[in-house]
Amino acid sequence: QVTDGGTIKQKIFTFDAMFSTNFSQMENYRKREDLVYQSTVRLPEVRISDNGPYECHVGIYDRATREKVVLASGNVFLNVMAPPTSISVLAADTPAPFSRYQAQNFTLVCVVSGGKPAPLVYFKRDGEPIEATPLPEPPAGAGSWAPRNLLHRDLDDTKVPKSLAAEGEPGVGQAFGTAEPPRGLAAERDSVTETIPETVVSREFPRWVHVAEPIYYFRHTHAPISDGTVEARATLTWTLNPQIDNEALFSCEVKHPALSMPMQSEVTLVAPKGPKITMTPTRARVGDTVRILVQGFQNEVFPEPLFTWTRVGSRLLDGSAEHDGKELVLERVPAELNGSMYRCTAQNPLGSTDTHTRLIVFENPNIPRGPEDSNGSLTGHCGFRLVLALTLTVILELT
Question: What pTM was computed for the model?
């Protein structure tokens, strides 16, 4: 086997036929025999590393002197194919904020690994092949390779997002901020947390969104891997229209000579709906560390949403206005947080949803109460000081 560009020739098999030659058994006569030898090398369970050139060297020896008189060689190239081992479809640049009221590009990335040679990758929408404009060069930025006929928000200044307008309506948005939270420590009650019904952001879109066939842009690249295989990446970019792209099925399909049928992976673009929120501990006491976590949704969400936590009507415990991530951690909660409302906004390019939960904080018997909660002890201290002052006055007067 020839490796490293011909610099190394590793001997993998040798067959010596000199001492296995048959001779005739007739008296004083040595029959001339035409002997044909065939040497076969078998590579069981061929691997990618077996790919490359092979040489066969044949030496013919003189029987009397056993010296090599003829040397010949031949070569063959073994081309090993390998089908792709994995395929996945991802959304580029997610999770990230995405405005439904501004035209923005969306990109799907199909990654195919483990194949040799490079496979053919293409996209389908709802089972139909997508006719896309190829992009031969990598884009310098989103603006340089975006569709040039994008319509912008400034073409429709009269539209006010309902999600913003609703904040002034009763029962939504500011209603939680204007309500006075319960003061003092919570009384004993059966329900520790109060679950507020989900508020789904309205899917009413501005007039720049037109129900029309989008213009797709396609780019295909591949890079060699150290094991001899190729990683192929295909990107599909278009101006997302949540009005028609929500619940659209996109599939990435791969054709390869080592595959008898195309290999595929598919995703469905879906907005988040019905977040499931848990709070631990379920019965929070003063001084506990409270964790509020989004465990999932009522549906399969793609692409991955961005989670933003806010405290309705006030800042978070650490003083920040909002917190990003699936989990919100409140370290050593004070009694003042009792009754506070927390909002979790989950959004992806297809839509967003808000879910609220209320924190109830109970007394902690392990933490001593302050002077203002000591049932008249502060008044008792003042009375003691007053009696002491009068006694000193009387003593001074008698003296």
Answer: 0.67
